[in-house]
Amino acid sequence: MKIAVTFENGNVFQHFGHTEKFKIYTVEEGRITNLQIVDTNGSGHGALAAFLKDAGVEVLICGGIGGGAQNALTEAGIKFFGGVQGSADGAVMAYLQGKLSFNPDVHCDHHDHEHGEGHTCGEHGCH
C-alpha cells in the first residue's frame, strides 16, 4: 500500500490544491518499507488526484481540501483523511496504528471565502 501526505518542512501541508510536494510511504505488512518525496511539477487541484493515482497511492493524508478535489480523489479510488496537522511521519504512524486524528467533514472553501469567519482550510496562511 502507498500512503501520500501533503508535505512541507516535515509537516502536513495545509492546502491540498497548492501542495508542491508529497511524501509517499510504501507500507508492507504494517511497516514502512520505503519513503520518497515527490514534486507535483505544478499540478494543482483536480490534476493532483490523477498524479497520486498514477503513483499508485491508495491513501492521502492532508490538511484542508476542497469539495472538487475530494470528488476527484473519490473517483480515483483514493481514500483521504483531511484536517490533519503536525508531523507527516507522525500522521502516517498514527494512521497505521488506527489512531489518526482527522476531520471527516473537512472542507476547504478557500475559493469562495473572504478571509476570516468560516475559513476551514487549517492554518495554511491564505494570501
Q: What are the defining features of this structure?
A:
single chain, 127 residues, alpha/beta, 3 helices, Nucleotidyltransferase, domain 5, 6-stranded mixed β-sheet
Question: How would you characterize this protein structure?
Answer:
The chain has a single domain, classed as Dinitrogenase iron-molybdenum cofactor biosynthesis domain (Nucleotidyltransferase, domain 5, 2-Layer Sandwich). It has three helices and six strands. The protein has helices at residues 46-54, 67-75, 88-96; strands at 2-8, 11-12, 21-28, 31-39, 59-61, 79-81. Strands 1, 2, 3, 4, 5 and 6 form a six-stranded mixed beta sheet that branches. A hairpin with a 2-residue loop joins strand 3 and strand 4 (31-39). Helix 1 packs parallel to helix 2 (67-75). The chain is globular.
Layout: helices, strands, pairs:
Elements: E1 2-8, E2 11-12, E3 21-28, E4 31-39, H1 46-54, E5 59-61, H2 67-75, E6 79-81, H3 88-96
Parallel strand pairs: 1-5, 5-6
Antiparallel strand pairs: 1-2, 1-3, 3-4
Describe this structure in a few short sentences:
By secondary structure, the chain is an alpha/beta fold. The protein contains three helices and six strands. The longest helix has 9 residues, at 46-54.
Low-confidence stretches: 110-127
CATH C-level category = Alpha Beta
Arithmetic mean pLDDT: 84
Distance between the ends: 35 Å
CATH superfamily: Dinitrogenase iron-molybdenum cofactor biosynthesis domain
* Helix-strand topology string: EEEEHEHEH
CA radius of gyration is: 14 Å
What is the total number of structural domains? 1
Percent of sequence in beta strands: 25-35%
What CATH architecture label applies?
Answer: 2-Layer Sandwich
How many separate helices?
3
Please bin the fraction of helical residues.
10-25%
Q: Report the strand count.
A: 6
Largest sheet: 6 strands, mixed
